[in-house]
Design goal:
With 242 residues, the chain is an alpha/beta fold. 24% of the residues lie in helices and 15% in strands. The strands form three sheets. A seven-stranded mixed sheet has the order 2-3-6-8-9-10-11, with no helix packed on it. The structure holds 2-acetamido-2-deoxy-beta-D-glucopyranose (4 copies).
Length: 242
Amino acid sequence: MGKFLLWVLILVMVVNTLSCLGCLEEERIALLHVNTHILNTTYGNSLDSWVEDKMSDCCKWSRVTCSNITGRVIGLYLSFVSYERVENWYINATVYLPFKHLNSLDLTRNNIAGVVENGGFDKLSKLRNLKELDLSYNNLNRNIFSSLSHLLSLKELYLDENPLDSPHNNSDNIGHERLSGLNNLEILHMRSTKMEENNVLSALNLKDFINLKDLDISENKFQSFEPIKGIGGREMFLKHLC
Ligand SMILES: *[C@@H]1O[C@H](CO)[C@@H](O)[C@H](O)[C@H]1NC(C)=O
Ligand SMILES: *[C@@H]1O[C@H](CO)[C@@H](O)[C@H](O)[C@H]1NC(C)=O
Ligand SMILES: *[C@@H]1O[C@H](CO)[C@@H](O)[C@H](O)[C@H]1NC(C)=O
Ligand SMILES: *[C@@H]1O[C@H](CO)[C@@H](O)[C@H](O)[C@H]1NC(C)=O
């Protein structure tokens, strides 16, 4: 009995210490790398609380969420992260790999037009806990579909307001990439992406998405049916697709 209580006490102490630690040093450094990547490729940013100070708890920095149990970074909310920028931003997804517990990554409203060499979104497949990726309001085109198809842990993917009809003319596979294989995906939003009927049919391998509960492809250039509004409309549309 005494031994049992001792273990309980040790457990309580360990849990307490973990939650008091604040952010991990390696994650603090990785956040500073993210900051450098943003500064290097855009004109300044709004991450004022991200400071190069060993005593600073990065879990308290703006746009960062840590788990209150493990102290690991689980959310990064990097929407509209730059004050001013060059027309298009090419990001390096590998800068997010140190956040092994990352659950949610928000990169909306950044004018992201693509990725640097060897810095594609497929790299994020190493993040086994990544459930939610929000890339809405960027300048991405259909060329990213095959790299996104590697992110099998994703439950939510938001691509609203990207010109998904207009692949760059520098790919081996111009305009033919498909989003496929994401069989854990529950929510897929592609509102206002300039897609036409034939784009949607060829771009989404819908039969892979066995857990999909919410598909929003409204405000596109469909002609043979009305824009989808509400569940009823969506069902009708899906029937149309199959
Ligand atoms: C940012 O630029 C500096 C100087 O040009 C370079 O040393 C550094 O590696 C760059 N960092 C990233 C993350 O690209
Ligand atoms: C830990 O976080 C969860 C969700 O993020 C929250 O619901 C809960 O209240 C938090 N617990 C403590 C002790 O702060
Ligand atoms: C992308 O980031 C990784 C890790 O920080 C770095 O090693 C690599 O050189 C970067 N690639 C480019 C093209 O900047
Ligand atoms: C793509 O680029 C090639 C040469 O770089 C050009 O000949 C071709 O017309 C372009 N195709 C489109 C659809 O713009």
